[in-house]
Amino acid sequence: MAILDQYGNPVRTSDLGRELAGPTVSGVRSILSEHPAQGLTPGRLGALLREAEQGDSRSYLELAEEMEEKNLHYLAVLGTRKRQVAQLDVRVVPADDGAEAARDADLVRDWLASEPLEDELIDVLDALGKGYSVTEIMWEFSERQWWPVRLEHRDPRWFAFDRVDGRTLRLRGLDDRERPLAPFKFVVHRFQAKSGLPIRAGFARMVAWWYLFANYAVKDWVQFIETYGQPTRIGKYPPNASPEDRDVLLRALTNLGADAAAMIPESMMIELVETRQSGGGGRSSAHGALLAYIDALISKAVLGQTLTTEAGERGARSLGEVHDEVRRDIERSDALALGQTLTRDVARPLVALNHGERRRYPRIAVGREETLDVARVSEALAKLVPLGLRVAEADVRDMLGFAAPEDGDELLGTSPPAGG
Fold first, then answer.
1. Average pLDDT over residues 385-399
2. Separation CA 106–CA 403 (nearest Å)
3. How far apart are CA 156 and CA 29, in angstroms?
4. Angle between helices 393-400 and 374-384 (to 10 degrees)
5. Bridge partners of residue 235, in order along the sequence
């Protein structure tokens, strides 16, 4: 009987060891990019986003890649969110307490222990920016066992969403025809910053317009500095100066701007006038304020909060606590989604191929283990037990991790009264 994947499709074991989505020298799976960020205009950006919605997302995905390369703030906050989750503990939770479930979980643990996964997890989390990521599993059959020997990140441009439902991911073939993804061959991670079509759910979609505005602000600022960043050169000549003398002075002013050196007759004079802005602000500070505002918006979108724009009335400490809690909420959400993807696309295929199909499969969990606040529990018990709350001693021991004492054990406790 054929093994079925998580979507009910029969698995072809002959495909497991082959590279199905690798790059090609030419065609739709080329590593070359058209670099749409160069000369990007509002009209071109709008058209590019519409093309992505209508099924051709290649230019949009190329832009998303360039945005990370060219906007260092976006790169930093996106990288922070990726590394926050990629460095968390990864553990395996058995499907139940039975021996079969324990054996399945041990198989998945052996794979996780075989090599570090941090780099691969960062590649999987590329979905944060683009809405989805695809990693091809390279399987090896050795000693009568199927084993994932390599996880290869694949360029998202080499895949396309079904043009009818906008959700089913398909592989672009060498003939530019789209084919279904082979069962048990791909780790497909999706991220939704908002509800809707997956291609519209990544951060790159939300940040794209602000990236464009920031580009314009930087260009204007550079032009402003080129114009007003150097002192104005004023040449003065006497009333009786001849046209030839004035030409000499003009050349001197030009040379002074390029070479910082010039030679003029003694009767002439060059004056350097520094440009000053009234009120300490002006156009230059407006450029900086706009860029800071855009950076703050990007931080809020990606990290959920920013201290730089809100540490006013409430104070940096209290706001820092809020910021940390928001960050933990985001971390838990990302970790839960990543664990679900690894369970569906790695743990399930690994167990099904080697141990057969199961009704329930071991779960890969990513995240910090919740720690018990012993002080709060102790305080609650001290207040509630005297009021009549009945609590089993065994439950408290299990909660705190203490074993029940055996006969002859030396026990902790209050000292008996003197003379007692």
1. 84
2. 26
3. 10
4. 160
5. 270
Average pLDDT of the residues of the chain: 86
41 phi and psi angles, rounded to 5 deg:
-125, 165
- Type of residue found at 204: A
* Alpha helices per DSSP H over 151-201: none
Pair of tokens at residue 409: 């054990």
Check residue 187 and give left, alpha or beta (phi > 0: left; psi -120 to 50: alpha): beta
Helices 348-355 and 99-114, axial angle in degrees (round to 10): 120
Share of the chain above pLDDT 70, in %: 86
Give the pLDDT confidence score for residue 318 in this predicted structure.
55
- Tokens 């497909």 locate to 188
The three-class DSSP label of residue 19 is: coil
Quick check: 213 and 74 in contact, CB under 8 A?
no
The tens digit of pLDDT for each residue in 328-348 reads: 889 999 999 999 999 999 999
pTM for this structure? Answer: 0.77
Residues 6+ apart with CB under 8 A from 178: 160, 162, 170, 171, 172
Domain boundaries along the sequence of the chain: 13-207+323-366, 373-405
pLDDT at 409 (0 to 100): 79
Q: Which residue has the higher pLDDT, 416 or 246?
A: 246
User: Positive or negative CA dihedral for 164, 167, 168, 170?
Assistant: positive
- Burial label for 330, CB within 10 Å (0-12, 13-18, 19+), is middle
Question: What sign does the CA torsion over 365, 371, 376, 378 have?
Answer: positive
**Cβ contacts of residue 301 below 8 Å, gap of 6+?**
193, 203, 206, 207
Residue with tokens 């050196």: 261
What percent of the chain is predicted at pLDDT more than 90?
A: 53
